[in-house]
Amino acid sequence: MAAVFACGDEAVVSHRTAAALWKLLPSAGGTVDVSVPGDSGKAKRKGIRLHRSATLEPRHVTRRRGIPTTNPARTLDDLRRAVPANVLRRAVREAAVLGLKSGNDAVVDGTRSELEYLFLQLCRRHRLPTPAVNVPLGPLLADFLWREQRLVVETDGYRFHRGRAAFEDDHDRALLIRALGYEVIRLSCRQVVEAPEFVAGVLREALSL
Q1: What is the pLDDT of residues 60-106, one digit of tens each?
Q2: Model pTM greater than 0.85?
Q3: Three-class SS string for the chain?
Q4: pLDDT of residue 170
């Protein structure tokens, strides 16, 4: 809020800082992104990254925790020109998970994490049959499913699969998937990123290709 006050009456938090306020991305700390309408504005200030925008309109602005902030759709639109593609994908996925109206179709493959996106790219790159992504399977949501071949792949990123509780949950999921009549293969981020050829070979065998 101090950064907004420092930049004038029409200033709003935007870009990466707005994404952090909406919980679309983790906070980058340090510099605060602030946008002002028009192509001119106050001089730069220490700790503030000032964006002057001729397209910023009142309909793009709301309040988050009492702070004037670009709405989710405008925030994602700003990010598209300011962050790498993988960071934008993460923000779009988080908006979808949180049920925020983003007006953004940057991610249409059904993946919910960067690891899932990388695995889907692995399948495409190695010309494996395209699996269904994040689909219901009994009481579960399977990460990747080849229904005809009765095969499920679960991708385990460290962030959400560390600790005893996650360890037990993962094993419970594996047993339930097998009880439903499916084979399950669990893959770590390291395996997907560092050993794609080996992973593709294992999948070809499991899919009887």
Answers
A1: 999 999 999 999 999 999 998 899 888 888 888 888 778 787 665 44
A2: no
A3: CHHHHHCCCCCEECHHHHHHHCCCCCCCCCCEEEEEECCCCCCCCCCEEEEEECCCCHHHEEEECCEEEECHHHHHHHHHCCCCHHHHHHHHHHHHHHCCCCCCCCCCCCCCCHHHHHHHHHHHHCCCCCCEEEEEECCEEEEEEECCCCEEEEEECHHHCCCHHHHHHHHHHHHHHHHCCCEEEEEEHHHHHHCHHHHHHHHHHHCCC
A4: 67
